[in-house]
Design brief:
single chain; mainly beta; OB fold (Dihydrolipoamide Acetyltransferase, E2P); 5-stranded mixed beta barrel
């Protein structure tokens, strides 16, 4: 990929991120809100769709690879510092470190199987590159959270998180 194409993609990503009102980490709140993926669903939905739970059986997938429509997002945590577990799907690097990635709720999302709805995807950006161990590494991400409307080559994304801290998920 040429430098011009990389610069253009990086500019588009940075431009898209200006939609989210991130002003810097934990300056707004010392309290960190622990979120789960079900917290990102609209209040009218009480459970994560069965298709998003458990192990995905790749051999039994529908031929449709379209992203399901999102039923909406929640604004409850806009501008709050949150902590959310998930898996990394890298989309931008600085050297060997990941600087932008999609945080997904299960292994395989956005790459091996159709992506989940936009309200189950979070675009994470970090100014300090994270040395990821690879695709679908489990992590906890802590930082400023907000609603977003970003479309990537992999999926439409409903939320964004400006990471202050990314740490391996300890089971």
């Amino acid at each position: 990929m040429g430098q011009k194409t990389t610069d253009l993609k990086r500019r588009r990503l940075l431009t898209a991120l200006t939609v989210v009102p991130f002003l810097g980490g934990r300056a707004f709140s010392e309290d960190v809100i622990e979120l789960s993926w079900s917290d990102l669903l609209p209040k009218t939905e009480t459970a994560i769709p069965q298709s998003l739970l458990g192990i995905i059986e790749h051999d039994n997938l529908s031929l449709s690879s379209e992203q399901p429509e999102s039923s909406g997002v929640r604004s409850d945590w806009n501008g709050q510092t949150v902590r959310l577990p998930g898996y990394i799907v890298p989309i931008d690097y600085d050297g060997t470190g990941v600087t932008a990635f999609i945080l997904v709720p299960y292994v395989g999302a956005c790459v091996h199987v159709p992506p989940p709805p936009a309200n189950q995807l979070v675009l994470v950006t970090t100014s300090t590159p994270y040395e990821s161990e690879g695709l679908f590494e489990p992590v906890y991400v802590t930082g400023m959270f907000g609603i977003s409307s970003i479309s990537t080559h992999l999926a439409d994304i409903g939320y964004a998180l400006s990471a202050d801290e990314i740490e391996p998920y300890q089971m």
